[in-house]
Amino acid sequence: MNPHPSLATAAFLIADPARSVMLMHLLDGKARPAGELAFAAGITAQTASSHLGKLLAGGLLAVETEGRHRYYRLAGPQVALALETLAAIGPAAPVRSKPLSREARELRFARCCYDHLAGHLGVAVTGALQARGYLVPAAGKRFDVPPAGAAWFAGLGLEVDRLRPGRHGLARQCLDWTEREHQLAGPLGVQLMSLLCAKGWLRRSETTRAVQVTPTGWTGLKKELGLDPV
């Protein structure tokens, strides 16, 4: 008896190029129709339907039905974590590569990793929090939040002691697949991303995983964390 049957199944499903593109397209946590996923993967609607059926059966996707329409999303944060972790495996950078498209540059700078901030900006924010002693790396790929950090988050409008720890704790280190450094994830990372959007510092794209920093956001990030516009 194979003690890990689901591992081989999940690996097989993710390994297909078209399926991997559709999965990565859903890393912002939003639900999307089959047609949009088919377009992103460069395949026909019929082929996309077949792939989506397999991903559903394999437990990587969930589906919502609204009238005659079906919308697909990742089955949960554990799928997003697996995808980001796998994407970080491999050479740090190719020896030669084509120039990045505008969309690729935007995603590399700042994007949603399912429910928290990722990309260059996510890593920069996390680094600034550590440099100021607001986050402290801990065992098990977690971050501890010392009193100074709790006070800083509270001043921003986020009460750390009211958050419910997840399976991996309150604050988790998530390896960014483009920057190869850690970003803040877990319940604290989720709420920080939500708060920065609510304050108007960040704006999420409606069509991609890209995140933009508003002028107000740059002012706030400079004041709070010493981050300059780029």
From TrEMBL:
It holds the Pfam family HTH_20. GO terms for biological process: response to cadmium ion; response to lead ion. Residues 1-94 form the HTH arsR-type domain. One of its GO terms (molecular function) is lead ion binding. It comes from the Bacteria. This is Transcriptional regulator, ArsR family. It comes from Methylobacterium pseudosasicola. The lineage of its organism: Bacteria, Pseudomonadati, Pseudomonadota, Alphaproteobacteria, Hyphomicrobiales.
